[in-house]
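Hey, can you fold this one?
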Amino acid sequence: MLGSVLAGETSGSDAHTLGRIGRTWTECPGSDRESFLENLRSGQGRGAGEDGRLGPLARDVYSIVFSYYGTLLGRGRVKFLPGEKWPGAVFSLATLPAHLVGLPMLATCWNLLMKRAGLARIHSEIRNLEMEPPQPVMPSEADLLPETEA
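Sure. Predicted structure:
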């Protein structure tokens, strides 16, 4: 309960590849749109499906990286304009060892760690709101007086 609002749970995909779309969703009772939304508002929703596990996320990142390499080789739907391909190709060749050794994996781990830290912070703030009602802040006299021009 947050003040007078019941806190429910929702969930959704942050898919960056087609294979991950629809793997996370919100479940809530309801026989039609209106009852579903009403039950969601009353806090009966819950997240379901896959969470952001490291393996699938890393696979998505590597898929995106290597599809870019394919695009540079002319195997993608994206076509480069004259002069656009060579800077990407030079950068990709220069950074290829880092791509193969683990830079995408490290970036994925960092991203996942930051998301979990953010969620822990949000959960902590919600718990604090549930325990302590907000205290009204009284403005000072200076805040209430109109500003005068010098």
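Helices lie at 33-41, 54-72, 85-101, 103-131, 141-144. Let me know if you want another pass with a different chain boundary.
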